[in-house]
Recover the amino acids of this structure.
């Protein structure tokens, strides 16, 4: 494969990876519409749908003749990581103020950009780091509404869980890149393991609450199809074959797009901090992706 075709494939994979961010922008709206469904029960129902999506996709795709089955240890590690991230995030929100917990948990795009330098063959540029920090600054504006936030020592345990969630998703994403030879169909196994673990946690810690309205059912199906379904498959593909730094920095678009969607559906109120956040996140994403979006100068006139 020549350099130009290799760059084209990498750019395409980067775009595919970014579609996960677009789907995650729907997470808040769909989750809000599920009403009083307990979190682990919701995780079980949505990851079950996500597993079915993967199975259907795998049946229909063209498979290489020499493709090997996914090793059990890989399936367990990926599934445990997916479940751990969601469990840690739920625990963080329950044991710390939601604003601070969400902000800390959303350190993962910045961590992905910075820690990507540890991966073989990856180069970390100043524009990647600055773009990630700009995105994080925009996220601070969105989460806090421009009013600032305070650190409550009594919520230290919740903050710790939020940090653990951020590092867990960072590790999951970067390890995916390290094992790029493992096909994306492995995500089917990850979702299946997460489904089983979520069901076990639900049965141990929660009471079952069945959806009582059509809207709740549609929201659950929507979550399973997109933010908790297809998004994990496109994210895996992007992490393994795309530009890690660009995808990481661009991931800060998720809370921005999520807020815009909530405003559009009357679930949030417009404010000027959102406008400034939009500018910061857009600037950060474009800066991180400057090597991709800038045009190459012709060598001869």
């Amino acid at each position: 494969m020549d350099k130009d075709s290799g760059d084209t494939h990498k750019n395409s994979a980067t775009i595919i990876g970014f579609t996960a961010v677009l789907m995650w922008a729907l997470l808040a709206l769909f989750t809000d519409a599920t009403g009083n469904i307990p979190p682990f029960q919701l995780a079980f129902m949505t990851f079950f749908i996500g597993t079915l999506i993967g199975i259907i996709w795998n049946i229909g795709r063209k498979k290489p003749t020499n493709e090997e089955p996914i090793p059990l240890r890989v399936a367990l590690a990926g599934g445990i990581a997916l479940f751990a991230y969601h469990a840690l995030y739920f625990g963080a929100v329950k044991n710390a103020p939601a604003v601070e917990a969400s902000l800390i948990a959303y350190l993962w795009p910045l961590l992905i950009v910075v820690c990507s330098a540890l991966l073989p063959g990856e180069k970390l540029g100043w524009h990647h780091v600055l773009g990630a920090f700009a995105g994080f600054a925009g996220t601070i504006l969105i989460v806090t509404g421009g009013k600032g936030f305070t650190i409550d020592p009594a919520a230290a345990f919740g903050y710790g869980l939020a940090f653990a969630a951020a590092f867990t998703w960072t590790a999951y994403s970067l390890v995916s890149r390290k094992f790029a030879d493992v096909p994306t169909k492995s995500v089917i196994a990850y979702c299946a393991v997460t489904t089983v673990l979520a069901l076990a946690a639900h049965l141990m810690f929660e009471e079952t609450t069945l959806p009582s309205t059509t809207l709740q059912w549609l929201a659950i199906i929507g979550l399973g199809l997109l933010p908790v379904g297809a998004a994990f498959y496109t994210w895996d593909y992007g992490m393994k074959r795309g530009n890690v730094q660009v995808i990481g920095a661009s991931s800060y678009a998720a809370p921005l797009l999520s807020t815009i969607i909530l405003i559009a559906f009357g679930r949030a109120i417009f404010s000027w901090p959102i406008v400034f956040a939009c500018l910061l996140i857009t600037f950060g994403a474009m800066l991180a992706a400057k090597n991709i979006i800038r045009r190459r100068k012709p060598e001869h006139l």
User: Anything to note?
Assistant: Residues 71 and 108 are 27 Å apart (CA to CA). Confidence is low (pLDDT under 50) at residues 295-301. The chain has one domain: 3-293. Residues 3-293 form one domain.
